[in-house]
């Protein structure tokens, strides 16, 4: 299997080459040169999420050096559950993606990528520098997955003051081979810094760079696997395809669901639930594609004004009519998020994080006939305990904290503040490599 840039530049690379590079040399994102196709029967012997992941991902690693390790990698990445839980009276089920080490859906992809890259590091090689921009959850998941991995360093870039206190603790509590940088700007500034770093000859000469954002192929395929496993469960139970409502920011999770459907899994409608950052909904409504500065919202991990994975969506659906037929999108503002958290706790006893609440709000708006006609699933992307300061006043009670989060909250934290400039990132990485982080 070979991979090409969405921008058409450069030559094809292998699966492991795409994972190591993160971003293509021309600034594009790697996509498969050809697509495998699956039938439901291909997953008949699968008994776990790891089984589904192995079956789904193995063709993407065909003839690659990682092919023989795919059994081990998928077990390592998917060794915690992603249960599908019915919400009685609501007319939909919830795919709970927050049972991993950092209580967010990004644990699956981060662990897969870490397990893969760790196997690609030859003894004595120059350390691999993982750059990750985060609006909240990505950085914590990546830091946890790569923490103390030999031969790998991680630089986490997050927007200063624009993540929740719990998220910031998850981003800054690691030390060792993980360094956290509070960027004086938005998530888009962080993301642009990472992309600029890959194009910068100075940094490329000093460091072997890779990325753990959803621009990296290795983040997306495990996410496609849990959408596939959910669709298979719905198909076997109800005999009809699943339809998904997915909280969306940088579009990695939504794209993974689109890819699962493209591969032949029984998936029908895919609805993107956005917060007030409406670049994608506006585009799907027929307005020109216009990236913009992100707006800070309660659903901070979705505060993205220039989502990277739109490039992959446009690659798969080159014309707007085709893209509009493939996905739809709705906007949910902070007021609606607050009301939905309170209303669904009162009605169903469910406690949503602000991101999951965007999906629940989209479901609540959906006409009854459309809801009844589909087997609807909303993606619960983070545990509400990560947003206690928002959720608890709305439901009038304390949110239980999972043990994995409680342990992270007890760790000391450390961060370095930098300007949103490439020169500042260069200096920070050089200082880190030359100081206490040199042996990370």
Plain-language structure description:
There is one protein chain. By secondary structure, this protein is of the alpha/beta class. The protein has helices at residues 15-21, 49-57, 70-77, 106-119, 137-146, 165-172, 187-199, 201-206, 217-238, 252-262, 279-284, 310-316, 320-326, 334-348, 354-365, 368-373, 388-395, 403-409, 422-434, and strands at 3-5, 30-32, 84-87, 92-96, 128-133, 152-159, 178-183, 208-211, 242-247, 267-274, 328-331, 375-380, 416-418. A six-stranded mixed sheet has the order 3-4-12-9-10-11. A five-stranded parallel sheet has the order 8-5-6-7-13, with helices on both faces. It has a two-stranded antiparallel sheet with strand order 1-2. Strand 6 (152-159), helix 6 and strand 7 form a beta-alpha-beta unit. The longest helix has 22 residues, at 217-238.
